[in-house]
Write a structure and sequence with these properties.
heterotrimer, A alpha+beta (130), B mainly alpha (322), C alpha+beta (411), B: 322 residues, 13 helices, C: 411 residues, Cytochrome-c3 Hydrogenase, chain B, 3-stranded antiparallel β-sheet
């Protein structure tokens, strides 16, 4: 009890006051994220083959495969599908990125995803790339 | 009262000046607390965020006022103005420019003591009138804390009066021409600061409006205009008590350099006053940032067993010296 | 089941009836500044002291266990790590290890060590969060800001390794999803020195700052018998002096080779909880250093098939708050048949209410949050049939026998 004193924190307070504050200047400055940061999903339609593995594994059920045409395999006619992504529900877990063996998906560093219209966060056949 | 006095009362160095100082004090408190914690404090409103308290005031004033059903609307309508009036009148008695204050009475130290008690009484009434469980508990704590810090505060205020032989603030300031009372009665100054912390509800004594325990204490049910004025009054009391400390212990607007020209002297004395005011304010910020909140029974114990006897001893010493 | 009658207090309290009159009840929550998640605590006052606390839970129940029954095994990893934000990796580990126990595949050693590193990083971040919040609840905002400033270092490390600060999404069946990045070892060691230095400073600060010690010493004291009787877990148990830790008693991941030293604290009050958690932060720093030194090379993941064979699996891990149980039942389908979670806050809740008996009202935030509650993890809803006056429950003896049989079978 003899060691107790009031105002133990004063020394540290004055030392901290003289140092530079640790607040990041975002949004007035740029925010730097780590290399592995998982942000918005980017889709490369050229590499996609329509295998539908991404649709099966997505935990947030963001990916919907839609038929865009047909092709003949042997003596059957099958649908050719391409994915559409509803990125407003995406949790950026990266499971689809891990499982796509054609490298059509990647997670960027983009995290500023607030939009006015929900539809602008849907990407699909007629959409962006990296 | 002539027109010049009315203008002085309302503008400088009267109400408007002190309200502006209240806003600056709040800004300064937030900035220094932030810097000591490693943050940056307000930056958006105005250069360096200096207009932030003003922005907060106007934002609160523009919000809807929600009054609980069990509340007493008469008290809640007229109470806040009375609560605001207490420190607003008090600041007129403090000499800022030169050794004269705007209003003067030979016994105005007692009037200051009355105003301090009155403002706490109004706070308790407002809190109790707003109903609700958290307000009632907050008012209970406020009254207990008030009864604990009142005696040391008054004793600390009486000590400079005894040393100066006068019960008016002007007289006490004038008597400190040769030596400031903080050097003769430092314990009284320390006690005054601690009791001010309790009056202003700053840590370690911010028990009556403890945010994390009883939501807002006696201020829980206020919103809109009432809350804007209550917060402004708290800031104004902060300035008022710091100004009292400066006048009673630090010699008011007096300083080492004296000009012959009366206008320049007036400006210089106002500058001295401001410097000392910010020094006392900064001392209170530093103490407030460094300490946690104590419980109400522990606060009462500290005040009654440690602080009051110290203050009595100092007062006895002052009487003996005289 | 008949409709619940309005204003019938008896049906809200349930089996343990407590006599009180409505004027003496102080509601704490569900929405309160000191509770980060809503739960309703009825404080029954006697004058200014608390006589009894009657909790009522269920405010953040999200039905996760039921949702898990409709999602595939891999999708559930992401569901279960979102049970709690602060102990997210512990939940992740619990689920993935429970499912791996049902398969024949074993996790490679490198992945085990990496799991230990990330789990200890999470323990540091969770304890620092709690320490800062104790400062906030005690009115000491300065301590809160400083500790959270240091916690940012840990979160930045987590972002560098796993890609996200809180919901790490890092563990997967058979190992971890990505290897440790290049150059992270030096950075981790540097940050560990920084955290150790700061933790030692905070230890001294909370022990000697008078306004904090009078709020925390002697407050919420429990004895060892009470702790054992109420079956609390985690730091709350260790602060009474009982030395139990799942990582030592039943090692998982690489804890059989990187053995933690169990920290205990003798007094059983909030002040000893403070020292205990800081001690655990220092111990975690040491464990991370040791794990990085001994890190073996090799694969970081074994591919595991997506359909899990039938069986039951029970597993416990040491989350930052205590012992976390996972029970996974598979029927050989592509979705789990049942997953049940028992979180540590569930076990600690009654101990916290016991700590509050006889204390003044001002101690409620400090004590209730002394057990580091995570109501999001804990919440559940139980079904009470008023007509037949039954609740589904097992007796203590039945549960004990079940546990003994399980471990006999496992050997």
């Amino acid at each position: 009890m003899a060691r107790n004193k009031v105002g133990e924190a004063l020394g540290e307070m004055f030392r901290t006051a003289l140092e530079h504050p640790v607040t990041e200047e975002y949004p007035f400055g740029k925010k730097v994220v780590a290399e592995r940061f998982r942000g918005k999903l980017y889709f490369d339609p050229i590499k996609c083959t329509g295998c539908s593995v991404c649709e099966i594994v997505c935990p947030a059920e963001v990916i919907k495969m839609t038929p865009v045409g047909t092709k003949t395999v042997g003596n059957r006619t099958v649908d050719v599908k391409r994915p559409e992504f509803e990125l407003y529900s995406c949790i950026s877990c990266g499971q689809c990125v891990d499982d796509c063996r054609f490298g059509a998906l990647s997670l960027s560093h983009d995290f500023e995803l607030a939009v006015f219209k929900k539809e602008s966060l849907k990407i699909g056949r007629s959409s962006n790339g990296p | 009262m002539n027109a010049a006095q009315v203008v002085e009362l309302l503008l400088f160095p009267g109400l408007t000046f002190f309200v502006w100082l209240a806003f600056v004090f709040e800004w300064l408190e937030r900035k220094t607390a932030a810097r000591m914690q490693g943050r940056i404090g307000p930056v958006v409103a105005g250069p360096f965020g200096i207009l932030q308290p003003v922005a907060d005031f106007f934002k609160l004033a523009s919000k809807e006022e929600i009054i609980p059903q069990v509340a007493d609307t008469f008290v809640l309508t007229w109470g806040p103005s009375l609560y605001f009036a207490a420190p607003a009148i008090g600041v007129a008695f403090i000499p800022v420019v030169g050794l004269q204050s705007i209003l003067y009475n030979p016994l105005d130290l007692l009037f200051m003591a009355f105003l301090l008690s009155f403002s706490t009484l109004m706070a308790a009434m407002l809190g109790y009138a707003s109903g609700g469980r958290y307000s009632t508990i907050g008012v209970g704590r406020l009254v207990i804390q008030f009864s604990s810090y009142e005696v040391p505060l008054l004793l600390a205020m009486i000590t400079p009066a005894v040393l100066a032989g006068s019960l008016s603030i002007q007289g006490i300031v004038a008597a400190q021409g040769s030596i400031w009372y903080i050097l003769i009665a430092p314990i009284s100054f320390a006690v005054f600061i601690m009791a001010s912390l309790a009056e202003l509800e700053k840590p370690p004594f911010d028990i009556p409006s403890a945010k994390t325990e009883i939501v807002g204490g006696w201020m829980t049910e206020f919103s809109g205009n009432t809350l804007a004025y209550v917060k402004l009054t708290k800031n104004l009391s902060y300035v008022f008590l710091s100004a009292l400390a400066v006048s009673l212990f630090l010699g008011g607007p007096q300083g080492p350099v004296v000009f012959a020209d009366s206008n320049a002297q007036a400006a210089l004395s106002a500058l001295y006053f401001l410097v000392k005011l910010f020094a006392v304010g900064f001392l209170i910020f530093a103490i407030r940032t460094a300490l946690a909140r104590v419980r109400i029974d522990q606060a009462a114990k500290v005040f009654w067993t440690v602080i009051t006897p110290l203050c009595l001893a100092q007062l006895a010493l002052a009487v003996a010296m005289r | 089941m008949s409709e619940p009658k309005p204003n019938d207090e008896r049906q809200e309290i349930g089996a343990g009836l407590v006599e009180y009159s409505p004027e003496n009840v102080m509601p704490f929550g569900p929405v309160h500044p000191s509770l980060k998640e809503p739960e309703y605590f009825r404080l029954i006052l006697e004058g200014a002291r608390i006589k009894e606390v009657v909790p009522r839970i269920g405010y953040v129940h999200r039905g996760i266990e039921r949702a898990a029954q409709e999602r595939s095994w891999v999708k559930n990893i992401y569901l279960f790590e979102r049970v709690c934000g602060i102990c997210s990796f512990a939940h992740s580990l619990g689920y993935t290890q429970a499912v791996e126990a049902l398969t024949v595949y074993r996790v490679p050693p490198r992945a085990k060590y990496i799991r230990v590193v990330v789990a200890e990083l999470e323990r540091i971040h969770s304890h620092l969060l709690w320490l800062g919040l104790v400062g906030h609840w005690a009115g000491f905002d300065t301590l809160f800001m400083w500790i959270w400033k240091d916690r940012e270092h840990v979160l930045d490390l987590s972002e560098a390794i796993t890609g996200n600060r809180i919901h790490k999404s890092y563990a997967t069946f058979g190992g971890v999803r990505k290897d440790l990045p290049e150059g992270i070892k030096e950075r981790i060691l540097e940050e560990m020195s920084y955290i150790e230095k700061r933790a030692r400073y905070y230890n001294e600060l909370v022990q000697t700052e008078e306004t904090l010690t009078i709020r925390t010493k002697g407050v919420g004291k429990i004895t060892q018998e009470t702790a054992r009787r109420l079956c609390c877990v985690g730091p709350l148990l260790r602060c009474t002096g009982i030395s139990r830790d799942v990582r030592v008693e039943d090692p998982y991941a690489a804890y059989d080779e990187v053995v933690p030293e169990i920290q205990t604290s003798p007094d059983g009050d909030i002040s000893s909880l403070l020292t205990l958690r800081i001690g655990e932060v220092l111990e975690s720093c040491r464990l991370i250093r040791e794990a990085l030194e001994k890190l073996p090379s090799g694969p970081f993941r074994t591919p595991v098939p997506r359909v899990v064979p039938a069986g039951d699996s029970t597993l416990h891990v040491e989350a930052p708050r205590g012992e976390l149980f996972y029970f996974v039942k598979s029927a050989g389908a592509s979705v789990p048949a049942r997953v049940k979670i028992r979180t540590p806050t569930m076990a600690n809740l009654l101990t916290a209410t016991e700590m509050l008996k006889g204390r003044p009202l001002a101690d409620v935030p400090i004590v209730l949050t002394g057990m580091d509650p995570c109501f999001g993890c804990m919440d559940r809803v139980s079904v009470v049939d008023l007509d037949r006056s039954t609740e589904w429950a097992c007796s203590g003896e039945q549960l004990r026998q079940l546990g003994i049989n399980y471990y006999r079978r496992r050997k």
